[in-house]
Design a protein that fits this description.
1 helix; 0% strand
Amino acid sequence: MWLYEYGLRKQNKRRVTAWRRGTCQNYGISPALV
């Protein structure tokens, strides 16, 4: 159960990172500012 939760959290973090990167590209904002 803990491993499953850990995997979900890791996956979610990756999704957030990808979303942030996409937003940065869309608006021309450097990742350092986000």
